[in-house]
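Revision sheet: structure tokens.
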Amino acid sequence: MLRAALPADIVAATDLSTLTRIERGNVGPDLGERTSDVMLSVLVNGERTLVYVLLEHQSTPDRRMPLRLLRYMVHAWEEYEERC
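Predicted:
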């Protein structure tokens, strides 16, 4: 999936053999349970890089969706920071 989603120059600089999933909780404050996001670690140009992937599907439009996605991402990064 990353090969298809990322620009070719970034894929070329990425050592996909180092791709590992960072285990984390899936529940955030007032966010409910989510299984549509994943945090990965991979070497890009020899440096450890974090990749956050979030897939969200809405059956109806929701004008607050960007805010909800931002909350998901902030929670994921805060959780990662607390573990390091």
